[in-house]
Specification:
- The protein is an alpha+beta fold.
- It has a single domain, classed as Winged helix-like DNA-binding domain superfamily/Winged helix DNA-binding domain (Arc Repressor Mutant, subunit A).
- Helices cover 47% and strands 14% of the residues.
- The chain has 6 helices and 3 strands; from the N terminus they run ααβααββαα.
- Strands 1-3-2 form a 3-stranded antiparallel sheet, with helices on one face.
- A hairpin with a 2-residue loop joins β2 and β3.
- The N and C termini lie far apart (35 Å).
C-alpha cells in the first residue's frame, strides 16, 4: 500500500514533535489516534469545525513531524499514530500527553 513520505524517527528532534503538538487541534488529533485504529481523513470522522484545507494542514504537520503515517488505498487515505516508534524514540511522551 503506498504512503506519503514520513521521516525516519531517528532523525526527528523532540522540539519538532512538541512544536507540532503545540496546536490544540493537533493535540486532540493525537488523542483520537492513540486508540491504535487507523482513521480516515474524512472531516466528518474528526468532528472539528474547520475547513478541509485546514485539516489537511494539520495532517501534513503531524506527518512531517514524524507523529503519523498516512497510507493510500485508492481514494481512501488512512492515518495512524506511530505509537510504538514514538514510545521507543521518546519514552513516556505520548502517555504523558494522553493524561488529563
Amino acid at each position: 500500500m503506498p504512503e506519503y513520505p514520513t521521516p525516519d524517527l531517528a532523525e526527528v528532534e523532540l522540539v519538532d514533535v512538541l512544536r507540532a503538538l503545540a496546536d490544540p487541534i493537533r493535540l486532540q488529533m493525537l488523542r483520537v489516534l492513540a486508540d491504535g485504529v487507523p482513521h480516515s481523513k474524512s472531516p466528518a470522522e474528526w468532528g472539528f469545525d474547520v475547513q478541509k484545507s485546514t485539516m489537511s494542514h494539520h495532517f501534513r504537520t503531524m506527518r512531517e513531524a514524524g507523529l503519523t503515517e498516512t497510507r493510500i488505498d485508492g481514494r481512501t487515505h488512512t492515518i495512524r499514530l506511530r505509537r510504538s516508534e514514538l514510545d521507543e524514540r521518546f519514552p513516556g511522551l505520548v502517555a504523558s500527553l494522553l493524561t488529563d
